[in-house]
Write a structure and sequence with these properties.
This protein is of the alpha+beta class. Helices cover about 50% and strands about 5% of the residues. The chain has four domains: about 120 residues, no CATH class; about 140 residues, no CATH class; about 100 residues, no CATH class; about 70 residues, Homeodomain-like (Arc Repressor Mutant, subunit A). A hairpin with a 2-residue loop joins strand 2 and strand 3.
């Protein structure tokens, strides 16, 4: 056969998500902060949408407009919803949108709020905007480790012709404060001799935070001891000469090699643990994550009440300005068609937002219902639970539950938790009930924390203690959970 390019045709069936369905799934999966950005984008793209200010709503969650509609005759159009017929009373709208629009006006109460007039006083809007501005101005961005080091370069005694070398070195220092390139690699990158790079590196290693610019943990700890003028201490000798044995906590071997007692090594190790293994920790912004709970759980009497965080979700409605434009007799068919499509898109967005809130709230209620003991006593009483169980109880697909809890947080009496953290696999107990693996991990963590440090618990002993509590578990499973908890094996936890 000859090789080459050929054109061919074939027919195939393929499922493709409609754009509106894709939008609905994106809204369901997006956390609150991302959801606000998506809604803001829709507000800019769809002119018929406008945001309802929270100040319009009272303590009951209803606006004055809502209460007026409840009192009105259901057979009558809601207040301020007017239809302007033709001047002579005989001309009819060319397309069928007038009838469709009248049906929109007769929608039930839950949708009428989106067609109300924006009657918020100007002062109220200004106060709301002022509060928002204050909130965003309060979020001050921190200085990165690299920026902090570059500022020290300018304040150091380095000649300006060495600045490019310093910038290259700092650019290769990671967020933990370690240099991730060798001197030879930096010399090749900057096209300068390696000895010049080494000289500049020594200067950078005198910067704050202590230990920055180290190439490994050993050098990092030694730099911190040198900064504190502790080069003649036992801990400095241990780190410089026996770092590998220290990592394995072989204190007797270190004591024999240095001619000191095991207690001396033990005390030196305690002082070493007070050093910072990650000098750049204070400049890391990974922990500065602003979490906005989607759901609140509060105990009222003997029951737990679950409510959605409505204040964090933008409230949208259809602008009356465009409704009035639709009813004007001088509006062209092109204008009517455009507004009609925009209103339909806006309606779908509003419906998707409402459905998102209902789905998350129903899932949260079912979680609280099944995890009542967690709400009472904390993580050690977390029960095993799967997304399939919640999906069946709520009446949605399992993938819907997965999307709904992704990146969402719930504010409980025990603190703020990610919703997906409640879904854990379980182990069988002696009485046939299930226990969450998170609960088992918590028990293992407590056992290790309270163990005799001179005789730490082995994995087999942990298995026996869990068995006494009715939890049947294999030793390899204990080893797996211990590893996930970053707990060392018993022989490495032993303190002499």
């Amino acid at each position: 056969m000859t090789q080459g390019l050929h054109l061919s045709q074939k027919m195939a069936l393929q499922q493709v998500l409609a754009p509106q369905l894709q939008q609905s799934l994106a809204l369901l999966q997006a956390p609150v902060l991302e959801l606000k950005a998506l809604v803001e984008q829709e507000l800019q793209q769809n002119p018929v949408l406008e945001e309802e200010y929270p100040l319009e709503r009272g303590q009951d969650g209803k606006s004055q407009r809502d209460r007026e509609i409840e009192k009105a005759d259901p057979a009558e159009p809601p207040p301020d919803v007017k239809f302007d017929p033709a001047a002579d009373g005989e001309t009819k709208v060319a397309d069928d949108f007038q009838a469709e629009f009248e049906r929109l006006a007769q929608m039930d109460q839950e949708w009428r709020e989106y067609f109300s007039e924006a009657n918020v006083p100007l002062r109220a809007r200004e106060e709301e905007e002022e509060r928002r501005k204050y909130m965003f101005d309060s979020l001050v961005a921190g200085t990165s480790l690299q920026e902090h080091l570059l500022e020290q370069v300018r304040l150091s005694e380095l000649p300006e012709d060495r600045y490019p070398i310093a910038e290259s070195i700092i650019g290769n220092i990671d967020d933990n404060g370690y240099l991730r390139a060798s001197v030879d690699e930096l010399a090749f990158a900057t096209n300068v001799p390696a000895d010049q790079v080494a000289e500049v590196l020594k200067v950078i290693q005198t910067f704050n935070p202590p230990g920055v610019g180290a190439r490994d943990l050993r050098e990092c700890l030694m730099l911190q001891l040198e900064r504190a003028d502790r080069q003649n201490t036992l801990e400095y000798r241990i780190i410089s000469e026996h770092m590998e044995l220290l990592g394995k906590r072989r204190f007797p071997e270190i004591a024999r090699a240095l001619g000191v007692t095991i207690d001396d090594v033990q005390n030196a190790w305690q002082r070493i643990t007070q050093l910072e293994p990650r000098p750049g920790r204070d400049f890391s912004h990974d922990d500065n994550m602003y979490v906005v709970p989607e759901v609140f759980v509060r105990k009222v009497g003997d029951e737990y009440v679950v409510t959605a965080n409505e204040d964090a979700i933008p409230h949208l409605r259809i602008s009356n300005t465009y409704k009035d434009l639709m009813t004007r007799p001088d509006s062209s068919a092109e204008v009517r068609n455009y507004i009609r499509e925009r209103i339909r898109a806006g309606k779908f967005l509003i419906k998707s937002l409402q459905q998102r809130q209902e789905t998350i709230l129903n899932i949260a209620r079912e979680i609280v219902k099944r995890q009542r003991e967690f709400m009472e006593h904390g993580r050690s009483h977390l029960k095993p639970m799967t997304m399939a169980q919640i999906a069946e109880a709520v009446g949605v697909h399992e993938t819907t539950v997965s999307r709904a809890v992704s990146g969402k947080y719930i504010d409980t009496p025990q603190g703020v938790f990610e919703m997906k953290s409640f879904f854990t696999s379980g182990l069988s107990t002696a009485n046939g009930e299930g226990v969450s693996n998170a609960t088992v991990k918590e028990l293992i963590n407590e056992m290790v924390a309270n163990e005799d440090k001179k005789q730490p618990l082995s994995d087999e002993e942990i298995v026996k203690r869990l068995g006494e509590k009715g939890i049947m578990i294999a030793r390899r499973t204990v080893a797996k959970y211990r590893s996930e908890l970053n707990i060392l094996p018993s022989h490495l936890r032993k303190q002499y």
